[in-house]
TrEMBL record:
Name by which UniProt lists this protein: Flavin reductase
Organism this protein belongs to: Streptomyces venezuelae
SUPFAM superfamilies named in the record: FMN-binding split barrel
GO molecular function: FMN binding; riboflavin reductase (NADPH) activity
UniProt xrefs under Pfam families: Flavin_Reduct
Region (Disordered): 1-23, 182-207
Amino acid sequence: MPHRSVPHPAAPDEPAGGRPADLRPFMAAFPTGVSVVTTMDSDSVPHGLTCTSLASVALEPATLVVCIRAASPTLAVLLAEGHFALNLLHERARGTSDLFASGAPDRFDRVEWRLPLGAGGPHLTADAHAVADCAVVRTAGFGDHTAVFAEVRRVTVRDDRQPLLYGLRRYALWSAAATAPQPAAPHPELPASLRPAAPEGGTRVVR
């Protein structure tokens, strides 16, 4: 008897009428760090916005991607100038995250920043625990956002500050999350004779 495929009924929570799925609740359930993208226009006016859509792409060459709303004025300047700074906010910088998400025209007047020689954009010196100076190498527009691929030219890290986290539309502190009890190991520890040798040295190289 020939096989006849039968359409499966839609799941109870499937969007009716083929409406696009709302991605926001899904991505809200994926906690991330918080960053502020900054750049300078040709008149030396700073521009910036809060961004949680970023990821590393490659280590050689060091490349990352940030996704920014296509209509953003900061994106327009960033693409025109070809460079920017990515400021990762520390856990006491929630106010700065909200400020740069608000689009307030005086936002750079309300934070501490500087522009080091060779920087891709303003460094938020009082609010960032790490900054990457980046040069744009490629862009890809999709829907209402533009993916900006950038080569990282320099990284500055402060080890005395901890990251700010964001998920489920709430902020959280890395220091609080890091002190939570860890789950028990699923397997007994290997005997010393079977453990892999530890790598030599503990130096962290930042380029």
